[in-house]
TrEMBL record:
PANTHER family: ATP-DEPENDENT RNA HELICASE DBP3
Domain of life (superkingdom): Eukaryota
SUPFAM superfamilies with a match to the protein in the record: P-loop containing nucleoside triphosphate hydrolases (SSF52540)
An annotated Gene Ontology molecular function: RNA binding
Basic and acidic residues bias (residue ranges): 245-256
SMART domains reported in the protein's UniProt record: HELICc
Full protein name: Helicase C-terminal domain-containing protein
Lineage: Eukaryota, Viridiplantae, Streptophyta, Embryophyta, Tracheophyta
Species, as recorded: Salix koriyanagi
């Protein structure tokens, strides 16, 4: 969401005169009150780690759950498909859900409007949430979704973090995000507060950059891995790494 400048501004404005001393004897002086700083983050990417190192001294780190891992309460499903088949597959999934709620994630504002328009045309009660909407429009969409005026919310990653929808039954990745961290954030909208949830992802050959990380995520959560994903070359090595090459003595050289 890009709040780092605001966080830095707040931290820079805080006085340093009441910092807890390094000397334990001074710290035991009951007449003084010292500042204690708590920093909370859903994940710990490098940018957040840099902030913590800059503003905290010898911090204690508390991790709830497993960092970067989806909760076991979420049943993850991956469907290999073609771009042209996504719309019909989405209709079938939503029909199976009936009156239950679903967030349909896409990667762009344009696609959010297109998918929502198609769903509305076909009789689904749908609203949208993306960066092209004003704050007031976003709140209206979210309120309508929470109160079940709309069953389906088509959203970009604006809704991927920090938004809590009670009893959300299903998260559908119509478009796979560009990294596994955002995938984890998205599917984490369901399976909350001890309840179970379902996440379904449409996967195409245009998503090969995330194949490796996605397969590792599915394996770690004991979820089914489609054979098309398991057997694809891109799922065997992390992007940017070079697979081990057999020794040159095993090469066959042809001389002419």
């Amino acid at each position: 969401m890009g709040f780092e400048p605001q966080v830095v501004g707040v931290l820079d404005a805080m006085p340093s005169s009441n910092l807890k001393p390094e000397n334990e004897d001074e710290e035991l002086d009951a007449k003084k009150m010292y500042r204690t700083t708590y920093m909370f983050s859903a994940t710990m990417p490098p940018a957040v780690e840099r902030l913590a190192r800059k503003y905290l001294r010898n911090p204690v780190v508390v991790t709830i759950g497993t960092a970067g891992k989806a909760t076991d309460l979420i049943s993850q499903h991956v469907i290999m498909t073609k771009e042209s088949e996504k719309s019909s597959r989405l209709h079938r999934l939503l029909d199976e859900l009936g009156d239950k709620t679903a967030i349909v994630f896409v990667n762009t504002k344009k696609n959010a409007d297109m998918v929502a328009k198609n769903l509305d045309k076909n009789g689904y009660r749908v609203t949208t949430l993306h960066g092209g909407k004003s704050q007031e429009q976003r709140e209206i969409s979210l309120e309508g979704f929470r109160t079940k005026r709309y069953n389906d919310l088509v959203a970009t990653d604006v809704a991927g973090r920090g938004i809590d929808i009670p009893d959300l039954a299903h998260v559908i990745n119509y478009d796979l995000p560009g990294n596994i961290e955002m995938y984890t954030h998205r599917i984490g909208r369901t399976g909350r507060a001890g309840k179970t949830g379902v996440a379904t992802t449409f996967l195409t050959l245009g998503d090969t950059d995330v194949f490796y990380d996605l397969m590792q995520m599915l394996i770690q959560s004991n979820s089914s891995v489609p054979p098309e994903l398991a057997n694809h070359e891109a799922s065997k090595f992390k992007p940017g790494t070079i697979p081990d090459r057999p020794p040159r003595r095993n090469d066959t050289v042809f001389a002419h």
